[in-house]
Design brief:
- Four copies of one chain form a homotetramer.
- By secondary structure, chain A is of the alpha+beta class.
- The first copy, chain A, has helices at about 5-10, 35-45, 50-55, 75-90, 90-95, 100-105, 105-115, 115-130, 265-305, 310-335, 350-375, 375-380, 385-390, 390-400, 410-420, 425-435, 440-450, 455-465, 470-475; strands at about 20, 25, 60, 65-70, 135-140, 160-165, 170-180, 185-190, 205-210, 215-220, 245-255, 260, 340, 345.
- In chain A, about 50% of the residues lie in helices and about 15% in strands.
- In chain A, strands 2-1-10-11-7-6 form a six-stranded mixed beta sheet.
- In chain A, helix 6 (about 100-105) packs antiparallel against helix 9 (about 265-305), helix 9 (about 265-305) runs parallel beside helix 11 (about 350-375) and helix 9 (about 265-305) packs antiparallel against helix 15 (about 410-420).
- Chain A is globular, with a radius of gyration of 24 Å.
- Chains A and D meet through strand 7, strand 10, strand 11, helix 11 and helix 12 of A and strand 7, strand 10, strand 11, helix 12 and helix 13 of D.
């Protein structure tokens, strides 16, 4: 028990889990070339031997032991901002382990319906934390025909469901989509994808199982080619992580790992618990990447001698504004945190939603600004191999030189970073994820409608219009 | 000395000042119908007899006396947020008196060049505060041909300049444009419109003169008709305020009212001191009006029975997002305040600039959203007179009824507020002011370029690109 | 019979019609100051004594007589483009008389249900044309609670309905909103506001009555003050036109003026017939005003010596692009015209809808661009009266001079035009009308969904995806 | 002489040309796996054995022989629209061969300066056409420090230049960037990258050389992996084409292949000739891809049962509007064609520029709309290999089923097409090319400023402002 080392983490992944990738069934992911970069990325979250990094990545638990900070339940603003600091450093594997926060945040509500489930949540939290495991957010069902509900589909399995209940546990069948890093974690924490109605009890199900449980199968998909060198792929070489299509082919789950099994009134609550932390993660990443965009736009323009052009400066100012708005919004969300009944604090829900929406609705435009400044070289630059080839490399060094103080390799790396982040497979993944993580634009707008202080706005409007009678009478 | 009453304020305006309006020279503005609403609006800032309002609108000075809070020099975050609370309550006349903050914020810099000028600033501050006067921000010169500098114009008077210097003082000539509320204040605080070069010493001039000083003339212009009833004009009836075209026709200014007279190195500093508070004022107002827009959109949609439509909810969510982003940015600007050498605090400059730009660049769109939801009635609704006319009023009440719990007069007031704020003369003024106050879009972008943490962004980009050599070597 | 002169038109308006404006019942609009400008504007459409103007404004009918071209039923592309040329010259009163085109375009469909109604349409068309009358588009009902249908409202009169049927005709009750120029026309052509269902027969009603029919009352509303001088209001002085709130207080309509009375299957057809011409009118106006915006931006920038600034040129290019896209779309709509069964041609429906939507969705932005370039003077410029006042005028002429070749009065007129068109009451009316005329943004999007060549797009997508089976099998 | 077959084309590429790709020097591209798809794509342009395709892809020359239509000099509107029809069918290799049109369009202007160069152009045109060769547009120089001109760079070779002149010809040195399909053509038609001044005579150079000329070297770069299967890459499998970094290492060009050698006054003319056809090509492609986006959005929404959602329909309407505006603009550009002195017709320059700008400025948004509707599956869908693997394939078929009439493979292909076109390497290339081909946003705005009918707009503004004096006097 206790903190794992990177090597221990890697070894733990060779546990018989069933994964597929590009048509191949892979029996041991720790030795397979396609998993080389993703495992290296995930293992880095286990590196915290330096005191500085230990401070960021670990904390002392209530028992006095050190655990990974991803498991720290925030109790105040300081905890929150340490968590955000950690999030800036952490891989997607660490990110999705945030599902434990979501689970703990609904424990009180679950306890009101079933103390047993609540105890299961508590136990699972300690088990994952104390063994320094990683867990995936397993939520999105295939959903089939969206105009019909779960139990109305042609195939009843299009939402994960309970097909059998025994004294020992439940048997579940179905699939879950878009499960980031599914093959790289230890536990699959399954949540219902949305609220369920009275006649959908078999679909109101939540539980956690180890990835190597019989019947669990994962089909992997990645934006990234297996061979990622850091010169040509400065970003994805450090972020490559497959998404999982996770199948539950009649998987048995013992009762002590079940968090919900038919109590439809809780389904929507569990479904929503994930969103806040997922959107917060998106926002934290956006604050970083939007600043990076400014730096890239500036450096590339400087190196071309274009940084004094009015058009260039104006476009950079648009990127600055985008970053500053995001940065300020994140700051607000953390400072105006909210507290659950049991004293767990979390970022301000409306703040996170509004700023995640602002981020998503304007991200494609920010890519446009950056690409507009960087020119065609973003997609036509020769690769590192051509640079290292003596003959072609000589020409590249000669002709990509701009000023005496500009180093050609540095210039190439910057263009590669722009391409990797905005105009290659990883960039495309980013465009989609910026929009879809935590729900598409329409879902995000609906959240704002729900939680905005509409009573205050209505009162303000009536007062400004000179209406003196009580709000309630004036309308509605 | 001490706080003035509304009546004392009004009486003080009959001091022989020379004002024109629509071709008429007005000798006593306190009895002229065109000034009725503006004076009423300005006088309200002097009302603070209730304890609640006294708390918001006044403070205790270092001498123990109470003064208007507009004069309180903020020393900490709490002072700043009290100031913002006051700004929400204050008219434009109170708003522009914020020029005293700008003046005091440059006092230290002025002292380094001229202790005498700095003493003049200090004395003027106490004089205005202790007599509860109001002062206008007098900055924008006509500028003639923008491609030439001040001293290169065909007419040397197109920027305010010193035409004579004597032992007693200076004589100035020129004009200043867009001087909000010029006719409604006591002091005209004149600043240079921008930085000046070595050969422009006569144009580096700053001073304050009473409005009734010989040679000062003001031509007023307002968006508002003189007769503003609160039913048809719920907003402008409370905000109507003329803009002044202020002429200095060889005005004598004694030395003890001069803050700059030729020291070109300070011109730009004084010019910029105003911008921050002007933009802060714009941001404070924007936080309010953007929430008002949400409330109006919601109420009008509810009254029409359209509040469940997906299109309506989506559009309201856009308005919510706009408001929330502005609200969070203002909060950030106040919390991350900055401190001058002498301990005066002010909102974060980059925060204010970025959010003012966001506000300005998106304001027309927010108007579009609101107008899209409210429909044609915004511009075709009959007026209060028609409602009060028994015969036509009967029809209006019958046909504008929508649901049993909707009061037709309330509905009309809400439409009138939308029209007044977005689709009538006041609304047009708002569109222009949202863009232009504190500088147009281009000027605001330039400010962001200047003060953004570009070193940080460049370093971040180089690190992400895998460049390990020192920044300085990599580029620049 | 035959073409009326302006004087005859004006005289014809004194016919006992019942109108209200600002609480006053006006018995003879031809002598009332509030109607001075609107009547002058409308009368100009009757001026065509010069050969050039006669060519644009009139045509030879099938009987060899000349009639106003607004009545010409287009039969080919040339007719269409002459109509557009005329539309550029015509007031709103002439514009709304385009309702006769809408009526004639549904005559064939009406004939299939009722030859009598079709004959009524034909007769009414000849009557209006041969007497050179003007007619209003009377369509929008108050609608009450939008979540309920016409016959479900608390008050059954919230949609115009038939309250009695006799051998001589029908009696109608209700009101219609946003009726442009209602008090300035001769005939009110009433259409159902939307499709009606089987149980709404009383609401499926269409007819035309003279404005002075007993029971018809009009409450006027205008953006414009009565006194509009051409210097301060260069645009609205030529376009001021009240909107009417039209009441039908148990109005008797003889059968030969009825076009629909219960045949619900035709209601939607009649309702939609108006939209096309209304949107075409909006598009024609937009092509003109968007070019005007470019010219204004350019001239004002030149006069300030800012026309070489990169920011200015970039912003003007945005305005150019907006204009060019609209111009090209109108050209397409006319060239790719569509033909009704009886040989009447009309602009391409999808083209008009898409470009009207493009216009509406981007109009507020075009206003932003123009206002950004023009600066604060748009709303702070003194009025003509101040210019004519000798003393203040002297200062205005001195200080608004920019370059030797710039005439101050011309400069002022240009600023006034920008203010009048974008930042004053007329400008506000424009913002709303750009969005709402022909339906708000959501309604316009729905039109595009309906009429787009979706089959072609689906087929193209399947082919590009490499799907070879028939479309029908692949999906749906 | 005469039309080549695909096989002849492929054989002709094995001519000793020097190309590099990913660090490897490739001696025979016709047998190298990386060139497999690009050569297949290019060879398809030579397929026109069916009568329908022969009609589209070929034409009868003035000598009566058939040639590829890419060489047909358009003389009227019909020629233009046939050319556009062909462009829809043609690969990038065919597209860039449009450089011959650019060359011929400046022949008259060149003749005025040098009849010899003009004759060279004419001869080269016939040579390329009669041998059915392909030619690349070789224009963009590396440019070094953009704030300095060609002859001021640290390295004089950063713009292609003449290093030696002999009786037989010239020797040139330098490099050209972003040369689409450089390795796949026969001729490199080199143009100056922009206008040149008097002291830059060595840089005013234009010529054409065969790709296998000694000293010519090409470094290739492609967005696409070598193995592109049509299931996973439905778009790029048909469009993959490397970009070339072309080096001229002291290349000898005989005089009869020279089109410019020092006549600086012509440099800008040649530089600009390319832009029109490049932008036209972009516009033609945009008309197609924007319709494809609509079809994809619709089909994917239908298959999910979401096509009735208001949000989905509204978003599809945005995509429709974008497509329709582009379609109408292209139609206008072709109908309002312009004619050169020698009778060659070309699309309307302003029309092409405005619509290319509209396309570029809004393309990222159109991608956002499509991605918003398609959800996360765009980037998480398993690949064809996983589908073909019996075990994983069974799960994929089960869980991606939505409705009885939806075929899972079809659904997968559609998602793959969305990913390939917008969220993978080809999609990223598209984002950059949409912005940069024919010049970035700023360059495109500048073009509009230059060629817009500004005189007309200024006159219109003055008339509308009521200014009656001649334009010339009013301003400027």
């Amino acid at each position: 028990m206790g903190l794992k080392t990177p090597a221990e983490y890697i070894a733990s992944l060779n546990d018989g889990r069933v994964t597929y990738w590009d048509g191949e069934r892979i029996d041991n992911i720790t030795t397979h070339p396609k998993f080389r970069v993703p495992i290296a990325v995930a293992a880095r979250d286990y590196e915290h031997t330096s005191p500085e990094r230990a401070e960021v990545m670990t904390y002392k638990t209530e028992t006095g032991e050190r655990a990974h900070r991803v498991f720290q339940i925030p109790r105040n603003e300081d905890d929150l901002s340490k968590r955000v600091q950690m999030m800036h450093e952490m891989s997607i594997v660490g990110g999705v382990t945030g599902v434990m926060m979501a689970l703990m945040s609904v424990k009180d509500a679950v306890a009101e319906v079933s103390p047993r489930y609540a105890a299961n949540i508590e136990r699972m939290y300690h088990y994952v934390r104390d063994n320094d495991l990683r867990a995936a957010e397993v939520i999105t069902d295939p959903k089939g025909d969206r105009s019909r509900r779960a139990h109305e589909q042609d195939d009843p399995d299009l939402y994960v469901r309970i097909v059998k209940r025994t004294d020992e546990g439940i048997v579940v069948r179905g699939a879950k989509l878009h499960i980031s890093a599914a093959s790289l974690v230890h536990e699959l924490v399954v949540m219902p994808t949305k609220g369920m109605r009275q006649d959908e009890t078999d679909y109101a199900v939540s539980f956690s199982v180890p990835v190597n449980t019989p019947g669990v199968k994962i089909i992997n998909r990645s934006f990234a080619p297996a061979e990622l060198n850091e010169f040509d792929y400065p970003a994805s070489a450090h972020h490559s992580m497959p998404e999982g299509f996770v199948i539950f082919d009649d998987v048995f789950v013992p009762w002590d790992r079940v968090f919900l099994a038919g109590e439809v009134q809780l389904a929507s609550r569990l479904a929503q618990s994930l969103g806040l932390w997922e959107r917060t993660g998106g926002l934290v990443a956006a604050v970083g990447s939007s600043k990076l965009f400014v730096g890239l736009a500036q450096l590339i323009s400087e190196m071309q001698g274009k940084d004094r052009d009015a058009h260039v400066q104006g476009t950079i100012a648009e990127l600055i504004c985008y970053h500053e708005m995001l940065k300020m919004a994140l700051d607000y969300a953390l400072r105006h945190y909210e507290v659950t009944p049991s004293g767990m604090v979390h970022p301000n829900v409306l703040a996170v939603n509004a700023s995640k929406y602002y981020y998503a609705a304007n991200y494609h435009d920010s890519v446009k600004y950056l690409q507009d400044l960087c020119g065609g070289l973003v997609v036509t630059l020769p690769t590192e191999s051509d640079l290292r080839n003596e003959e072609s490399g000589r020409y590249i060094r000669k002709y990509l030189k701009t000023k005496s103080n500009v180093d050609v390799e540095t210039r190439m790396r910057l263009y590669n970073l722009v391409r990797d982040m905005t105009a290659d497979a990883y960039g495309g993944w980013h465009l989609v994820v910026a929009l879809q993580a935590g729900g598409g634009l329409s879902a995000q707008r609906t959240m704002m409608n729900r939680i905005f202080d509409m009573a205050g706005a209505r009162e303000m409007a009536l007062a400004a219009a000179g209406v003196t009678r009580p709000v309630a009478q004036a309308a509605e």
